[in-house]
Structure formats: C-alpha cells, structure tokens
Amino acid sequence: MDNYNASLDTLFHALADPTRRAVVQRLVKGPAPVKELAAPYDMALPSFMKHISVLEEAGLIASKKQGRVRTCTFNPDKLAAAEKWFDDQRTIWASRFDNLDTLLTTLQGETDET
C-alpha cells in the first residue's frame, strides 16, 4: 500500500503543475520533440527539461533521444492508478450519501408520524 500511495503522490505531483498538464495533453495527440513541446513556454530549455524529468519520473511520459532530438511519448497506463483511486473515492462517497439518504428518509418518516 505504501508503494501505491507513493506512486500516486508522484503522479499527482507531476499533474499539479499546469505546464506539465499541458505537455501531457499535447502528447495525448502523439509523440513530439522536446523543442516543439517547449515552444509555447517562456522559459529556458533546461528549466523546461525539469518538467520533462518530473513527468518521466511519474511514468506519464517516456523520451527517446535520436541524434540531437529527444522525442517524448505519452504513457496512458500510468493514469490507471489515478483512475482507480478516483473510482474508489466515488464508491466510498456514493455509499456515504446512500446511508445519509436512508437516515434522512427514516428521520422524515419519524417526523411525519408525530
């Protein structure tokens, strides 16, 4: 469980930054060289490469260097852990709301009887 939580922490940290989310959104459309990914941002390439590193550490993207060009690709499998976590949270909260609804219905019935 600790490894699962650490993996989620890394994933959510990577997605917490708007630049990194935008890079992931772009890579969903297909692979792209780092230079193309960095073009919309007003930052030095070494700074942008830190974002790439965070995404790679989270497993969201992979990069491959051929010659002088580093190309990044999106790894959709890594989002499965986050999706599972969200699904688990939805299930927990749906159950809690169902219990609350049952309690309110019971209390409303008791109020109607008096």
Strand-helix topology:
Layout: H1 2-15, H2 18-28, E1 32-33, H3 34-38, H4 45-57, E2 61-66, E3 69-74, H5 79-113
Antiparallel strand pairs: 1-3, 2-3
Helix pairs in contact: 1-4, 1-5, 2-4
Can you count the beta strands? Answer: 3
- Radius of gyration, whole Å: 22 Å
CATH H level, superfamily name: Winged helix-like DNA-binding domain superfamily/Winged helix DNA-binding domain
Question: According to CATH, what is the class?
Answer: Mainly Alpha
Total discrete domains: 1
Q: How much of the sequence is in beta strands?
A: 5-15%
The second-level CATH architecture is Orthogonal Bundle
**Ends: how far apart?**
50 Å
What is the average of the pLDDT values?
A: 89
The CATH topology corresponds to Arc Repressor Mutant, subunit A
Describe the structure.
- The protein has 114 residues and is of the alpha+beta class.
- It has one domain (2-113): Arc Repressor Mutant, subunit A (Orthogonal Bundle).
- Helices cover 68% and strands 12% of the residues.
- Strands 1-3-2 form a 3-stranded antiparallel sheet.
- A hairpin with a 2-residue loop joins strand 2 (61-66) and strand 3.
